[in-house]
Amino acid sequence: xxxxxxxxxxxxxxxxxxxxxxxxxxxxxxxxxxxxxxxxxxxxxxxxxxxxxxxxxxxxxxxxxxxxxxxxxxxxxxxxxxxxxxxxxxxxxxxxxxxxxxxxxxxxxxxxxxxxxxxxxxxxxxxxxx
Length: 130
Known about the structure:
With 130 residues, the chain is α+β, with helices and mostly antiparallel strands. It contains two helices and four strands; from the N terminus they run E-H-E-H-E-E.
């Protein structure tokens, strides 16, 4: 098998008994309802929203085991990947990136959904990616 094209894993094993959190697709919409004009800015907001969702479940981005991302054109792949690769450099999750026709509003160029897994111990004692 050829190595991954970027900072992602071909597969990630989840330990028995792990809790799973499935995050709905997040768009680059800030809390103030602004949308950055560029993919990198939108991806930053998507992952910030995901981080907030995971923190509500007692997890962090370190618990992400799967990313599904969608961009509206090839020109958005590299900016999205810069953000993903920076945030997940140490333990890259399994990841899929697809080019799609569009989203609910024309200004959105990226949407990101994740699956996170963690065991029921305090985060300070927990190893990411069971």
